[in-house]
Structure prediction request, 108 residues.
Amino acid sequence: MKRLNSFAAELLNLSTVPEQEFTVENPREGWVFIAGDPKRGAAIRVNGEQVRCRRRDGWLEAMRYLPEGEFTVSGDGALNRLVVRTIPELVYSLFRYDPHVPEFGPYD
Prediction:
């Protein structure tokens, strides 16, 4: 694990992706960012299940909420790069701003 800043840590960064599964250790329960630079027809799999990805700037990107511990990630052998990062859950609110969901009460 490589700490990138006070929010994110890189769990895996491969510049060439062989056709295999990689075991990644998630240090805590939370959000994990997965991105791959795809060749034609590429897909990303987490724990053997294909992940729905969004294509952005030529990359496939996905977010998954995963438990603490090990998980597997693979690129079906059709990725040029593969990046896995852990990121925190952030909430933005304004002082004295009431939420759209009244049950949450005022932000004070």
